[in-house]
Prior knowledge:
The protein is mainly alpha-helical. 73% of the residues lie in helices and 0% in strands.
Amino acid sequence: MSNLSIIERYDFKNLSPDLTKSQLEIINARRSETVKSLIIENSALFYAEILKAFDLALMLAGHKKEESDYFNQVKACSKALESNFNIGKYGSITVNELNIAVERGCSGQYGEFMGINYVTLNKFILGYVQEMNEAITKQRIYEADLKYKREQKEKSERLKAEYQEKFWKFIEADQAEKKSNPDKVINDLGSVKCKQLIREGKIVLSDDDKERFKKKTLTAYALEISAERQRARDKQVSFGYYPPEGEDEKAKKIRIYYSLVYNEWLKEQKELKENN
């Protein structure tokens, strides 16, 4: 496995704030090649790394090299560790992490040990792998959360853009309707469209405009109520029942108010286009 593939495993620019100092060291150390891939690519380099780790352990533990048996011990340790790496016993531990495992092990972080040999290094690496997996899990959860939030934001922006496109198609259709029939009153979601145009700053009402439309609303409201009452009387006579109640007075006036504003805006837009 190449160094690039290791680096791309994590979002090193967005490390979890929940990682401890020790866990940060682990994640940052994972920028190097995995030991298992090193075995496949270059067995000589693998042996060199084990030799380096073995020597580091001897030094940190304060042990001297026993020249007569030193290379036999390293060779035996290397062979046993290679087998463990090949079967995946140590997961994806990297070359950099191998030395960290030795340093932490020699400090007593993974319990007491006797001598520097395969048993000791195996214990150090297994202890480290447990820490490594905890750090990886924490970072992965954080990255997944960031990805989810990013996707939700992108989805929200996409839906907003789609809505805006559809919204303006509705406006254009109303403008076309107004152009073909200037006296036509657009009621279909007129109040909803008007509120959106106000939020977007396309419609700006002065205080005088607001007062003017309030007065027009009261007049239009009275006419609509009168018409509804007449329809209700006609239905009572024809079918002998009372129609169900619709909007309350406040909701009806709000709808009428914004519908009046919207229709006047459409008329103004038509006149502006004609003059230009």
